[in-house]
Automatic annotation (TrEMBL):
PANTHER family: GLYCEROPHOSPHODIESTER PHOSPHODIESTERASE 1-RELATED, GLYCEROPHOSPHORYL DIESTER PHOSPHODIESTERASE
Organism: Lolliginicoccus lacisalsi
Signal peptide: none
TM stretches of this protein: none
GO molecular function terms attached to this record: phosphoric diester hydrolase activity
Short name of one Pfam family: GDPD
Domain of life: Bacteria
Protein's recorded name: Glycerophosphodiester phosphodiesterase
Domain GP-PDE: 1-270
A Gene Ontology BP annotation from the UniProt entry: lipid metabolic process
SUPFAM superfamilies xref list: PLC-like phosphodiesterases
């Protein structure tokens, strides 16, 4: 299954509505987002602690309100970056750079988790949304509490009817994953990173995640983690898989979920 990492973020600005809409149009099986909590208690889709890299503004997410965040453009940085890249490839041809910069003539707003959930639920076919909570953060466990409350509001915190879960919670912080497993045991979870190698209990145990999430670098070094996860009843989510040789490695090992910045290209490599 192909997961669009921050949307189709190789082609559109990450964590924007444009990136997720493109990923869905390209046939991604699932979407991935990071969430952070604003000063006024709104969960937004944002990877970094600050908005400096991905917006026209500056500031720390946790000290800003949603209105503060909406005052900035979250698209032009990506177009300008692509313009510089294409310009370099074209040996300074200004028309290529200008075409990239002009792609986002309208400002792109910060995306709330509520807006992303609405997009996924309104889509014509079932999709899974992988939601990663970031830690350490100013508001600590409140992030997971707000997440569960939001999922309950959408009716997504209960056990899914089929084998295609609508939402999966993820984190690099074991404490965050365990909090969700205790508070919403029907919600599938993934423990990301190096810690996932050392899980020794079956996923049915309270507080233990149902899947592991190694990076592609970790998978190259420890390919047997997939087999060990399968033996304990867990599936595997690998990030961030963009190179064809890595896509093939994941396929050969039987990885369940591949997170990629290029969902369409990855689907094609998998024959989907």
């Amino acid at each position: 299954m192909v997961v669009a990492h921050r949307g189709a973020s190789g082609e559109r600005p990450e964590h924007t509505l444009a990136a997720y809409e493109l990923a869905l149009q390209q046939g991604a099986d699932a979407l991935e987002c990071d969430v952070r909590l604003t000063r006024d208690g709104t969960l937004i889709c944002m990877h970094d602690r600050k908005i400096d890299r991905t917006s026209s503004g500056r500031g720390v997410v946790s000290t800003m309100t949603l209105d503060d965040l909406r005052a900035h453009d979250y698209g032009r940085w990506h177009a300008e970056m692509q313009g510089r890249q294409r310009s370099a490839v074209a040996l300074g041809d200004p028309e290529i750079a200008d075409a990239a910069v002009d792609r986002y003539s309208e400002p792109l707003s910060v995306l709330t988790l509520s807006e992303l959930l609405t997009l996924v639920l309104d889509w014509g076919t079932p999709k899974t949304l992988f939601i990663e909570t970031k830690h350490p953060v100013r508001y600590g466990a409140l992030v997971e509490a707000k997440l569960i409350a939001e999922l309950q509001r959408f009716g997504l915190a209960r056990k899914p009817a089929g084998s295609f879960p609508p939402v999966v919670m993820m984190s690099f912080a074991p404490s965050a994953v365990f909090r969700v497993r205790r508070s919403a045991p029907a919600l599938p979870t993934v423990l990301l990173g190096e810690n996932s190698r050392y899980l020794g209990y079956r996923p049915t145990t309270t507080g233990v995640p149902a899947a592991i999430g190694p990076s592609i670098e970790m998978l190259r070094e420890h390919p047997r983690v997939v087999e060990r996860a399968r033996a304990s009843g867990r599936s595997t989510y690998v990030w961030t898989v963009d190179e064809p040789v890595d896509v093939q490695l994941c396929r050969d090992l039987g990885v369940r979920w591949i997170a990629t910045n290029f969902p369409e290209r990855t689907k094609q490599l998998l024959g989907g």
